[in-house]
Amino acid sequence: MEAIIAVAPDGTKPYFYRSAAGHEIDLVLELAASRRFAFEFKKSLSPSVEKGFHVACADIQAKRKRLVYTGREAYPGAGGVEVMPLLGTGKV
Fold first, then answer.
1. What is the CA radius of gyration of the chain?
2. How far apart are CA 19 and CA 55, in angstroms?
3. Strand partners of residue 65
4. pTM of the model
5. Residue 92 confidence (pLDDT)
6. How far is CA 6 from the centre of its chain?
7. Which phi and psi (to 5°) does residue 59 adopt?
8. Positive or negative, the Cα torsion across 44, 45, 51, 53?
9. In this structure, what DSSP letter does residue 11 have?
10. Nearest-angstrom CA–CA distance, 20 and 62
């Protein structure tokens, strides 16, 4: 998480999100009031996100949803989630 926060643009507000119903996002980067990126982190070579992640993303109106995992390949995931390797691009 710290590496992603470190390459985020200046003025970005990082935080953890948890709804009253218990839906969570591991890391939210708020670049502006209406521009939020949601990140989920998984220690798996075949990662997936739970329904609660999608609900939480809808709550905060996330513009992008990313799943960071321990594999090596970036690929499009289900539900508009971008899957990306833990070690990789240096992009947010």
1. 12
2. 9
3. 38, 81
4. 0.89
5. 47
6. 15
7. -55, -45
8. positive
9. T
10. 18
Give the pairing type, strands 64-69 and 81-85. parallel
Residue 79 confidence class, pLDDT cut points 50, 70, 90: very high
CA distances in angstroms from 36 to 43, 46, 62, 64, listed in the order given: 23, 25, 5, 7
- Specify burial of residue 39 (Cβ count, 10 A radius: 0-12, 13-18, 19+): buried
41-46 long-range contacts, CB within 8 A, separation 24+: 41/1, 41/67, 41/68, 41/69, 41/86, 42/67, 42/68, 42/69, 42/70, 43/69, 43/70, 44/69, 44/70, 45/69, 45/70, 45/71
**Residue-level pLDDT at 88:** 59
Q: What is the pLDDT of residues 6-15, one digit of tens each?
A: 999 999 999 9
Tell me whether strands 75-76 and 35-41 are parallel, antiparallel or unpaired.
unpaired
